[in-house]
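Chain A, query sequence.
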Amino acid sequence: MSVGRVTSQGKQRHAVYRAAFRLVRGVSYASRTAARIAGALLLAALGILFLNYVVLPTDKAHAYRNLDPSLAECRDGLAKGWTILADTGREVLMTTRPVEGDGWVDASNDEDAAIATDARWATRLRCALQRHRVPARDAGGHDVAYHLGFIEFQEDGEPYALVAREGASDTAIDSAMLRHAMDAEMRAKGVPATMVKPVITQLDALKKHLSTGSHYVIAFVHGWRHDARIGDGNVADLRLYAAHAARFLAQRCQSDPSICDMDVTAIYVGWRGARVDERGLRLWFGDTIGGFFGNLSAGATLFDRKPVSEAIAPAAISALRTLESTLSAPGTHNKLIVAGHSLGGNMLASGLKDDMVKAVRRHRFGETLPPVLGNLVVLINPASEASKWTAIQREVWLKLADYADAHTPASEVERDDGYFPSDQRPILMSVTAALAFPAGGLRPGDCAWIGLDVDDAFAAARRKIRGRLSATDSMFDAGVDYDWATHDLFPTFKFDFRPAAGYLDRVAARFEGRQPRGESCSPPPPVGLGAGFLTLPLRTLSLLAATFPFQNTACEDSHTIGNLDPPRPAAGVLADAQPSAAPFGTTHELLGLDVSGLERHHPYATLADAALDCPRSDHWLTRARMARAARRGNSWDSADLLPGGSGERGPAARFLHGLQLTGIAPITRPNDPFWNVRAFDNALSRHDGYRLSSFICALNQLVMDDITDAPSSMSDHRGSQSP
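Chain A, predicted structure.
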C-alpha cells in the first residue's frame, strides 16, 4: 500500500471524526439550549403560580356587600336613593368625551370615583341592599330609580351572613345584628321573640324586600376574573342594565298603568371569580405594567375557576328559586330575568341542564313548555361546554321527525311542528359574539356561485348574500370583535388546539394583507417576500397546533355553547337549505339593525335624559312566524313581520330563526323555546361587549312584552294565510 493512499484514508477518518464531534457538540448545544428554555418556562410557570397563590390572591372567604340593610347608613339610602354615582359620573363626562367602538368603558359609573369624593361611601356601598337614582336634568324629565341587591357565595357554595357594623366578622353571624333584627321584627309585627325569624343573610334581606310590592327583577351571575368587590366592572354593568330597565318600564307606564308601580331590582350573584387581585396590580404598577402582569397571572386561573363555578351552581340555583318563589305570590305580576356571563353562564348552564332535560322529557305534545327559572334565562358568551346545551337538544330531537324521507312522510314532519305550540316563548337563550358569516365559513365553490349572473330561483338570495358579504368584508377589514375567550381560549384549555390554529392563521393573514380563509370572496393579493418570511413562524405554529397528536377532538366537549355550529351538508349551495347530518349547536342569529355601524352606547349618568327609545314589541314573534307560513314558520326573521296592530313594532335587534343563507336548514322548529344565538359584532361584541342599549332593550323586550299571540289569534292568522 502506498504512503499517499494511507495518508488519504487518515484524512478521511479525521474528517469523519471532526464531523461526528461537530454533531455531538451541536446536539449538546441544542440540548443545553432546550434545557435552558425548558428551565426558563418552568421558572416562569412557577413564578406565575407563586404570584397567584402567595403574592396576589384575593381573599378566599370574604363578602364585599354584606352590611345589614337596617343600619342607618343603608336605611337612609333606601329611603332617599343615592345619586352619588350619577352626580360624579356627570362631572367625569364634562371633562371626558366617551369613546365609541372597541372596549367601550362607561366612565360615568364608577364606585371608586364616589369614594374619592367622600370616604364614607366605602362603607355605604357595602350595604347588601341599595337604592340608586339617576336624576333627570331636563325640567320635564323623570328620575330613573332602582334597587341593587347582592347574594355572595363561598367556594363551597355557602352563603354569607349579614353583619351589623363595618369590620364585623364575615364568617359568623353578628349577635348584635341578630338582636337588632329581632327587636325590629317584634315591634313591626307585634309578636313575641319565639315567632320571629330574623334577617341573617343577604338572601333573607332580598326575600324581605321582594315580598311586598310589584317587582321587575334582573338577576346577574358574573363571570371569570370578577367578584362583588367595590369598583368591580361587572357590578357597574348590572347597574347600567338596571337603569336601562327602569327607563324602559317608565316608557311603558305611559300606555300601561298596571306596570307603573313596578320597582326594578337588580340582584348581583357574587362568587370568587377573580382569584388574582388584578385591580391591586393596576393600582400598584399602573394600567400598562400592572395590566400586563394581571392578564398573564389571571390567564392561568381558568382551569381553577371553572370547577368552582360548577361547585357553586346548586347553591346559586336554589337561591334564585327561593327568590322566584317569593315573586310568585298569588295576585302579583312580577317578572324575573336571569342572566349569566362567561363562567356565570357556565354556572347557570351546569345548574339547570338536568332540570331542562327533565322538563323536555315530561313535556306533553302541544302544550306550552313553562320557564324553568324565572321568565327567561340568558347566557351571555357562556364559557361552558356545548354538551350542556346539546343534551337538551337531543331530548327534543329524539321526539321529532326532522325531515321527510322514504320512511318518514312529510305529514309526520309537519305534524311535529306542533310539539311546541304557536304561543311558545323562549325560556332559555344563549347569545355569543360569533366569528364568521356564514356559519362554518365559505367553501371555494361558494364564491363562484355567488358571483353568477343568472336569473334563476336563487338570484335574489345571491344578491342578498353579496350585500351581506360586502358589509362583512368591511367588518373583517377592521377586525371582527368576536368572543376570543370562548372561541379560541376555552378549547385550548380543553386540549383542543384547532381554534387556536385558526386564530394564528387569521393573524398571519392580516400581516399578509389578506382576508382570512373562508371569510371573504375578495381575491387575495399576492404575498410579498417580507410578509411571507414574517408569517412563516405563525403558519408553522398553526400547522403544529392543528395537527397536534392526541388532542381533544370531541367538539361538544371542547367547544363552547355558542361556538358549536351544525355542520353544513355536502350537497347544495348557500341559498339551498339542506338538513344537517348533526343537527346540534347554534340555532338562531342576531344582528344590529344599523348594519352600517355600531349603535351608540348610552352612559349610565345620562340615562334619565338620553334620547333612548325601547318601545313595546308585542306579538312580533307570532307575526314573524306567520310571515313564513309558506315555510311552516321556518327561517322567520324579526325584520320581516306580518302586518300587526297600530304601533306594534319588532324588537330592538334583529333575530333570525336558523342560520340563514348558509346552506343549512334550521335544526329546530320555529316554536322551539331553546335559542342558541350567534350574534354579529354590531349587536354583541367581544367577550364583554354586551352594553349596547339596543342589545339590553332586545333582551328586556323578551320579558317585558307579550311577544306572542294567544293560540286563538294565531289560528286566525293561520287561516288568512295561503299554504
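The first helix runs from residue 3 to 55. Residues 169-174, 712-723 have pLDDT under 50 and may be disordered.
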